[in-house]
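Suppose you are handed a protein chain with no further information: no name, no annotation, nothing but its sequence. What can you learn? This example shows the usual starting point.
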Amino acid sequence: MKRLIQSTFVAIALSLAAGVQGQPVDSLGQRLAACTFCHGEQGRAGPDGYYPRLAGKPADYLYHQLLNFQQGRRQYKPMTVLLQHQTDAYLRDIAHYFAEQKAPYPAPVTVTLSPPQAKRARQLVLHGDAARQVPACVGCHGTALMGTLPATPGLLGLPRDYLNAQLGAWRNGVRKAHAPDCMGDIARRLAPEDIAALSAWLSSQPVPALATLPPAPASVPMTCGSAP
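A reasonable first move is to predict its three-dimensional structure. Written in structure tokens, the prediction is:
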């Protein structure tokens, strides 16, 4: 972890040194080399499945996740170190910068699911599970599953390992949000095999071409503190 933090700051220094005629370039994009070192060019996602896409996500969502890392609701030491002394205004600048990036999505990696697994995943995504008090994913994340404005992220275009890890983190209380923490409640109501099926199914879906994200629906199935 120490080496990762050191490498990140080295990337920042190298980027700032690459100015015209040897003069440092002071732009927001250059300053955020610390982010793209792990999250990929334009924030299009890291290559290993654990650093998620930032590009094109709702700015309010990105801003609140930066706050969550800074304030300890999300646990990843390098992120906390990078953000702990940043101002609120700068966190908003970071969020808006990546929200405005229009990087292409990679082709999804197909994961083979058994017919019962695929059926269960589609049921949870489209209809939820009333018996477990689990709402449909589309109820909050949009009918295209690409997120809604102002603060709900998309579920497509994310690696299986990342989806699995985040649902597991919510289930185990490692990842949190402001109360009411609806995703924590949902993850704890899901069976482990449900999380595995959802992660595999969502990561296998093609990403639709959307010009803009739609606004949040007038009525959502749960009240979430992470989406004021």
